[in-house]
Inverse folding.
């Protein structure tokens, strides 16, 4: 294979030029396919297309399962994911259960290491060091949020970058910001895959990301605005980031111009129908637990007024069943990537 490549590309510069040409051609074909797909949706439309994150996640998990089976057929052991869960936060326990179930479904082995909320920071760091040095562990994550006495940034940076399947280590964040290949944070990568696999165009489009968290809002903005011809291709969109100090009337001015709105602020009904233009795509990353006014029971809602916004949007994700399942699916992809990278590091 190497000889065949050498016969066609006589120099690194030629190879780079051909790679850029191929990437541009792929992007052009993608835009044509997107335009063709959207033509079928351009007639009279009463409501948005509801994007099923569950369906897309199942598709990605099938791809991951095939990848694992091929990996094992080549004589490698199954990828292994270790999850450190501190405290008794019910939401965290639920998320971890979903992750370990997904791992089993795609053929990844996993373990959940439970620690009490009273654990000291030094004890957590010692545990992470042990898992970093364990050759049987490919992917490692510490479930967030952590108890207040633990420094989340210090703990995330203690995880080996090669095993950091959450993509939170400063090295992975830095590489992502430089458009280099890295372990991408699972939720932002999930949002990216929703947009790409649904065929929502990003090149030259206006995007508003509501929320600037370092684990969600910022990485989503980076993926969407960066150059599509770089090592880690981005969306080539014009991105505006809002946050808690953005006045609501100013936010409305930005969102009414947006072709894509990504709501990731953790505020129920932050995005309402009067804030979007006809035909915008709306991705709801928010997960908020509120009391149902009718039943009195707790229920999950996003940051978007779903029932009203779907009447104007072209695409919209629901909560639950939208971005959440995609986050878990991308975590499985990251675990497989980690296993392959670690094997290369050991061989070298």
């Amino acid at each position: 294979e190497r000889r065949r490549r050498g016969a066609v590309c006589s120099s690194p510069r030629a190879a780079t030029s051909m790679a850029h040409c191929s990437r541009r051609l792929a992007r052009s074909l993608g835009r044509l396919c997107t335009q063709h797909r959207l033509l079928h949706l351009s007639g009279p439309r009463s409501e948005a297309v509801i994007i099923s994150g569950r369906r897309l996640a199942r598709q990605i998990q099938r791809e991951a399962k095939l990848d694992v089976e091929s990996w094992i057929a080549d004589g490698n052991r199954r990828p292994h994911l270790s999850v450190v869960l501190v405290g008794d936060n019910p939401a965290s326990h639920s998320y971890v259960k979903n992750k370990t179930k997904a791992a089993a479904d795609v053929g990844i082995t996993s373990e959940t290491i439970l620690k009490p909320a009273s654990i000291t920071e030094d004890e957590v760091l010692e545990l992470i060091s042990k898992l970093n040095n364990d050759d049987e562990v490919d992917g490692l994550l510490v479930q967030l949020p952590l108890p207040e006495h633990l420094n989340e940034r210090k703990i995330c940076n203690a995880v080996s970058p090669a095993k950091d399947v959450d993509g939170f280590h400063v090295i992975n964040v830095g590489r992502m910001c430089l458009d280099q290949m890295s372990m991408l944070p699972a939720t932002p990568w999930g949002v990216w895959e929703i947009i790409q696999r649904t065929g929502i165009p990003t090149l030259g489009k206006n995007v508003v990301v509501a929320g600037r968290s370092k684990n969600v809002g910022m990485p989503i903005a980076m993926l969407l605005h960066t150059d599509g011809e770089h090592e880690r291709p981005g969306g080539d969109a014009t991105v505006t980031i809002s946050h808690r100090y953005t006045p609501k009337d100013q936010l409305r001015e930005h969102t009414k111009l947006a072709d894509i709105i990504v709501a990731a602020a953790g505020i129920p009904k932050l995005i309402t129908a009067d804030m979007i233009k006809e035909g915008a795509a709306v991705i709801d990353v928010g997960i908020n637990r509120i009391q149902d006014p009718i039943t009195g029971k707790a229920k999950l809602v996003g940051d978007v007024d779903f029932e009203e916004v779907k009447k104007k949007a072209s695409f919209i994700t629901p909560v639950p069943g939208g971005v959440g399942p995609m986050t878990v699916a991308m975590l499985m992809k990251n675990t497989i990537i980690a296993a392959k990278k670690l094997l290369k590091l050991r061989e070298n």
